[in-house]
Amino acid sequence: MSARPAAINARDVILVTGADLAPQALELLSGFDVVYAGKECGEDLLESLCRQFQPVALIVRYGRISARVIAASRRLRVISKHGTGIDNIDAAAARAQSIAIRAAVGANAAAVAEHTWALILACAKGVVHLDGRMRAGHWDKAVHKSLELKGRTLGLVGLGAIGRQVAVTGAALGMRVVAYDPCATAVPEGIALRELDEVIASADVLSLHCPLTQQNARLINAGTLATMRDGAIVVNTARGGLIDEAALAEALRSGKLRAAGLDSFQVEPFTGGHEFTGLQNAILTPHIAGVTADAYVGMGTGAAQNILDELAR
Predict the structure, then answer these.
(1) CA distance 113 to 155
(2) What is the structure's pLDDT at 156?
(3) What gap in Å lies between CA 262 and CA 75, rounded to an integer?
(4) Model's pTM, two decimal places?
(5) Which of 73, 82, 111, 308 has the fewest C-beta atoms lying within 10 Å of its C-beta?
(6) Does the active-site annotation cover 77?
C-alpha cells in the first residue's frame, strides 16, 4: 500500500456528502475548499468526486461510503460523520487504508431523545388516530382509552447519550426504567441494567438506541416480539436494520403490539406501498429525529472539529 501524504496544504478539499453545512461549521473549515456532492449521493458520484478532488476528509451526511469511494482519494485521512451512526461507512476498508472514522457523538442527542418521546406519547395516547377521527367528524370521547405511562416499564436497548436522556424523562414520568447496554459507563440514578431478553420481555414501551452491527441486525424479530407483553409499544429512532419489518408489521396487524413509532427503516428513502403505510397503529417519520436547527449546527461543528483534530495529529 502506498503511503498517504502526511502534510496538509492550506487549500486542500473536504468533500461533503450533502448539499450544505451550518455556517458555523464552514467557519471552522475556512482554511479548506469545501465541495458539496448534493443530496443524491450515489456510489458512482461519490467515487467520481473523490477521484476528481482528492479530498483529505469526508463529511458524511447522505449516501454510503464504500471501499470503492474510500480508495478513490489517495489523500483521504479522515471520514467524519455529520451525526453519530457510522453504519453507512465501510469501517474495514477505512482501517485498511489507515483512515480515521470519527462521529459527532452527542451532537443530536437532545433532538433524538425529544423525538423519541414524541413517538412514544403519540403511540400511547393515539394522537394521530384521534386527529384523523376528529377531522372526519367523529367525537370518540366515550370510546377511546389511552395508555397511561406512569407505573409502566420503559425498556431501553442502548444507554448512550440519547438513551440516557430518554431514560431520565421516563423516570420523571413515573415509569420503571430498565436498560441493556454491555458498554454502558454511566447509568442514571434509578435505571436498572438488565439482560437483553429481560428488557424486551418486561417492557411496556421498548425503545431502541444502539448502533446497527452485524451482531444485532434484526434484533427485533418474530421470536423476540413473541416474548413481549401484549399491547406493548416499540419505538425506533436508531437504525432500521435493527427490526425485521415483516415481523413487526404482523405483530401490529394481529394486535400483539399496541403501536410502533418508527423514524428509520431498512431501506431509505421510505417509499409508498410499504406494508407499514396500511397500518394505522404504525406512526412513521422520515428519519428526522435528529433534524433540528440546533442539532444541525451541533452535528456540523462536531464533524468539522473532528476533522481538524484528526488532521492535526
Answers:
(1) 14
(2) 98
(3) 39
(4) 0.89
(5) 308
(6) no
Q: With 80 as the cut, is the pLDDT of residue 9 above it?
A: no
Q: Name the nearest CA neighbour of 160 among 216, 101, 109.
A: 109
Whether 114 sits among the annotated catalytic residues: the reply is: no
Q: Catalytic pick from 229, 239, 245, 258?
A: 239
Catalytic residue (one of 27, 148, 195, 268): 268
Which of these is catalytic: 68, 129, 133, 287?
A: 287
Burial class of residue 291 (count of CB atoms within 10 Å of its CB; 0-12, 13-18, 19+): middle
Q: How far apart are CA 190 and CA 21, in angstroms?
A: 39
pLDDT in tens, 172-185: 999 999 999 999 88
Preceding amide of 269 cis, omega within 30: yes
